[in-house]
Amino acid sequence: AEHGQWSRTPGGSWVGLELPPDQWRERALEILEDFAARTPGSLVERKRSGLAWHYRMADPEYGVLQANELKVHLASLLSNAPVEVLSGDKVVELRPYGVNKGRVVTAVLAGAPEGAVVAAFGDDRTDEDLFAALPPDALSFHVGVAPSRARLRLATVDDVRALLAGLCP
Q1: Is the predicted pLDDT of residue 54 greater than 90, yes or no?
Q2: Model-wide pTM > 0.85
Q3: How far does CA 61 lie from the centroid of its chain?
């Protein structure tokens, strides 16, 4: 969860990574909220470790213009802060440096039974860290058409569901 900040143990407990200082957070939150107020159809998501500005329901052209302006503004404001600015599908996200989905791979593999097949599915930029951290014999699937480190591709989420249903009838 939250790009690898949180993961579940086989027993079902949630375990979180230690985060770097977050002095950047309050000022960044003010900026995101300002952009949300100026962009009808957008909203701010507050995560425990990061922040996100979503503009999926905003006017498409205006949303893209605002997202580009926001990224420039945040890059300047946060140039020396331990945080990354990521662009996604109609979202601009902020996450602490070092927090990514690839960080949980070692722990997951350590708890996997002997001979387990490791498979990972993803559809956006944040999944690329996961794909990069997988061992060479793992199965990695990118869902969609964007460039990816994943070894295999599926066109849609329905294709993922069909594949999984075929494995576990």
Answers
A1: yes
A2: no
A3: 24
